[in-house]
Inverse folding.
């Protein structure tokens, strides 16, 4: 099995001020480590595209996408897929990769969107996935504004469908989370877990494929150490990959 994972990277440009003087430095970081280890633990092959490489390296054809059993977008805004350098810098026509993902799923692909500051709507609504083809294939409806629920006190989710295959092998209560994107359940979707009035984990079939929305983060900061080091962290994400790809979960 092979998946494509895009996002979960960032660059920090820091200004240090010391009295009259200042200087800057730049740091590059990734939040993919824990998920990548989960995939490695069961032999799932993963191709990783960091956020800054997405405009020019995310697939531009169905043939390319259909090499993968599932596609993940995590903490990366829609502009990174819509605005290739070819279009943004040279004003040339290029494929709409959100429409491409929709076609990929309708033909049998698996798709997962993971929450964060730049997925779903995100901070200041800069994720900008509402009213796109990606929202059509997801099992949720997005809010038309900044959809973050910050929870420094921690929140605990309610599992609605404990017998669903994505929860196979998982026992007991889930760890707390420090926030999530507020997502509304769709009538044609299955809500597997929720917090308050919002869907936390939800799924649906779209055409011949499947999609899953996970409202929080798979890495810090919304995903605290208690989650990313949880004994069932690997189990859950492996189950998710297999389910959206249409594989049996043993």
């Amino acid at each position: 099995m092979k998946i494509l994972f895009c996002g979960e990277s960032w660059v920090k440009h820091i200004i240090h001020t010391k009295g009259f003087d200042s200087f800057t430095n730049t740091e590059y970081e990734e939040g993919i480590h824990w998920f990548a280890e989960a995939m490695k633990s069961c032999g799932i092959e993963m191709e990783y595209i960091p956020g800054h490489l997405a405009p020019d390296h995310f697939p531009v054809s169905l043939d390319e996408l259909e090499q993968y059993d599932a596609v993940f977008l995590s903490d990366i805004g829609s502009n990174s897929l819509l605005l290739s350098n070819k279009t943004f810098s040279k004003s040339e026509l290029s494929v709409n990769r959100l429409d491409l993902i929709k076609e990929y799923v309708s033909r049998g692909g698996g798709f997962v969107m993971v929450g964060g500051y730049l997925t779903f709507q995100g901070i200041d609504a800069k994720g900008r996935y509402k009213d796109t083809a990606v929202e059509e294939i997801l099992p949720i409806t997005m809010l038309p504004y900044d959809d973050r629920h910050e929870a420094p006190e921690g929140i605990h989710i309610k599992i609605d469908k404990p017998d669903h295959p994505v929860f196979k092998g998982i026992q007991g209560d889930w760890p707390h989370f420090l926030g999530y994107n507020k997502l509304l359940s769709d009538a044609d979707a299955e809500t597997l877990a929720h917090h308050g009035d919002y869907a936390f984990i939800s799924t649906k079939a779209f055409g011949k494929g499947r999609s899953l929305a996970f409202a929080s983060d798979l890495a810090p900061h919304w995903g605290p150490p208690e989650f990313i080091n949880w004994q069932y962290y690997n189990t859950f994400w492996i189950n998710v990959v297999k389910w959206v790809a249409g594989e049996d979960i043993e």
